[in-house]
């Protein structure tokens, strides 16, 4: 009977003492954790939106630049001329190249023969089969995909290399009557796109990158050195690294969604191209045929929420043990006099009137029957 009363007291003391902690752990904490995770996803989504906007604005600016060049009377004259091109036109194109941050500019006639170029290796070449020529010849300002260069270009290591990632923005050249007489093609510096992706520091493990319609990365990763060590790339990420999930052998979830033309996010996590579980958001850029993906390791992205979980558990462990000890001591202090009184009462009820119960209070001893 003594143990029964004590156990009940211990249970009641523990119950009322631990209720606030139970509420904190199983009601308040999950809500706070969910809110923190939603904030992280919204932040990541904001990053993806901002990066997509920067890329689109950059491309729009380059389209405007090439359109301006195509409307210059000197350029129209050079496309139509059957004679050698004057040095003044080359000087103009070189000035435009510097001002617009281009890697080269060429002027071709309506048959696709390059007549003027800032890169002498391109003079006299036939570009009639190139998509950027065909699209511009059809009357539109066109932005090509990022592709391997067909002529030697200075790469990021300061060496001349064929196959360096490059892209073109082209526009039709029209005479006064609106007839297309040639095409101006501006070779863009794709390193600018790399910088747009790399300038944003997304924690220790986050990154943003662009992919093409075939699932290849077309900008550089901030972890390219590590990727070389892993053997995933040899020289660079652009056009070399396909975004494959090593567990399934298929494109990663973020890239698959991009190529399906979707915008969205994954807050639960999926495996990236290195085998790490990441949080991701993605944007499809339909005018360019590119996808933009922003990812961060799930452990880092939800690090604050996970830390809160550990803190809550630590607090519970720190407080529960002293509370159990305190409940035991308090219940013992309360239950012993109650049991003695109950025992004496039962004996007196059975006829033993010699029973006495002593109660110690304020240093005095009080006796009663």
Key descriptive features of the protein:
46% helix, 20% strand, alpha+beta, rod-shaped, 4-stranded antiparallel beta sheet, disordered C terminus, 6-stranded antiparallel beta sheet, 369 residues
Tertiary shape: rod-shaped
Structural class by sheet pairing and helices: alpha+beta
**DSSP summary, beta strand count:** 14
Q: How many helix segments?
A: 9
Radius of gyration: 38 Å
Low-confidence stretches: 362-369
Question: Can you give the helix content as a percent range?
Answer: 40-55%
What can be said about the biggest beta sheet?
6 strands, antiparallel
* Topology pattern, helix = H, strand = E: HHHEEHEEEEEEHEHHEEEHHEE
End-to-end separation: 22 Å
Estimate the strand proportion: 15-25%
Average per-residue pLDDT, rounded, comes to: 84
Question: Would you mind describing this structure in some detail?
Answer:
With 369 residues, this protein is an alpha+beta fold. It has helices at residues 2-70, 73-80, 87-100, 131-137, 191-198, 224-230, 253-259, 298-301, 303-349; strands at residues 102-109, 114-117, 142-143, 147-148, 153-154, 160-161, 165-174, 180-188, 207-211, 264-271, 277-285, 290-297, 359-361, 364-366. The strands form 4 sheets. Strands 1, 2, 3, 4, 7 and 8 form a 6-stranded antiparallel beta sheet that branches. A 4-stranded antiparallel beta sheet has the order 9-12-11-10, with helices on both faces. Strand 11 and strand 12 form a beta hairpin. Mean pLDDT is 84; it is low at 362-369.
């Amino acid at each position: 009977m003594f143990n029964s009363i004590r156990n009940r007291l211990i249970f009641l003391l523990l119950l009322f003492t631990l209720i606030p902690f139970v509420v904190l752990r199983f009601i308040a904490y999950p809500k706070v954790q969910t809110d923190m995770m939603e904030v992280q996803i919204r932040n990541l989504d904001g990053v993806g939106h901002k990066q997509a906007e920067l890329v689109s604005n950059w491309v729009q600016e380059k389209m405007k630049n090439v359109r301006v060049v195509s409307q210059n009377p000197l350029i129209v004259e050079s496309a139509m001329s059957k004679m050698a091109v004057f040095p003044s036109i080359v000087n103009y194109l070189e000035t435009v190249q510097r001002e617009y941050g281009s890697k080269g500019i060429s002027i071709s006639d309506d048959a696709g023969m390059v007549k003027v170029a800032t890169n002498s290796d391109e003079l006299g070449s036939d570009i009639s089969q190139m998509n950027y020529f065909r699209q511009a010849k059809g009357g539109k300002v066109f932005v090509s995909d990022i592709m391997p260069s067909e002529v030697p270009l200075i790469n990021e290591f300061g060496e001349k290399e064929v196959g360096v990632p490059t892209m073109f923005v082209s526009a039709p050249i029209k005479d006064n009557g609106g007839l297309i007489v040639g095409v101006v093609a501006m070779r863009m510096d794709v390193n600018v796109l790399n910088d747009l992706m790399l300038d944003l520091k997304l924690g220790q493990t986050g990154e943003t990158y662009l992919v093409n319609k075939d699932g290849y990365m077309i900008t550089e990763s901030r972890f390219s050195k590590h990727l070389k060590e892993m053997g995933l790339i040899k020289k660079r990420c652009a056009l070399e690294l396909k975004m494959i999930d090593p567990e399934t052998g298929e494109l990663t979830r973020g890239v698959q969604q991009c190529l399906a033309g979707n915008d969205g996010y994954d807050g639960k996590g999926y495996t990236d191209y290195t085998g790490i579980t990441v949080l991701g958001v993605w944007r499809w850029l339909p005018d360019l045929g590119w996808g933009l993906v922003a990812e961060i390791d799930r452990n880092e992205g939800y690090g604050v929420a996970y830390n809160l979980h550990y803190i809550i558990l630590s607090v519970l462990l720190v407080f529960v043990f002293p509370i159990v000890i305190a409940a035991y001591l308090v219940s013992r202090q309360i239950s012993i006099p109650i049991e003695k009184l109950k025992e004496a009462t039962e004996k007196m009820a059975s006829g033993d009137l010699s029973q006495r119960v002593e109660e110690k209070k304020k240093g005095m001893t009080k006796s009663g029957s």
